[in-house]
Write a structure and sequence with these properties.
17% helix; eight-stranded antiparallel sheet
Amino acid sequence: MLRDEIIAYHQTHTCKGQSSKPLLIRAPIALIEQLNPQYKHLDLFDTSAYDTTDTADYLYLRLHPDYDVENDRLGDKGLRNTFSSAAVFATVNTRRGFKAIVKDRRKLVLDLIKRLVDISESSAYNRYTPIKLVDFCHPEVDAPIYNGEPATIRWGAIALDANLPSLVRVGSEDYFKKDWGFTFKESILRLN
């Protein structure tokens, strides 16, 4: 079973040289097994449960991307005049987002994310199903602690970069010639 293989792998291998915080993307085990039938690259996956929506049917794809915050502010924050000439303080809604540059050039990483995007956009007629991430890179101020690190669970949309790099074959596997990226936008608005 894939879950058992990943747990055994992580017990015998330690992470070395990880310079950035992890970004986890939830994926159904059935999809991972479909795209990775030989159970290769077990270092890419995390079996942890981060909330009650995580069941034995899901794993997380673990990335260590270059990460840039790209939040969208909707409106202007500050004092506003009212009809009674009293001032009120207007809050602003913010849609959290980021741009991630994926440094792991294994084709399997893009294949998984691309399929998750396709599934989320076609789950039901004219409906969108958000993708779940666990964001250790830029957690909220009041974020819960997971494995000793603060992280925020985010639900939203992933858009892949339009121009993806070309592939090169190394042995029996395909790798990208250079890094590639995607943008994530959270589905909920937050007060800022």
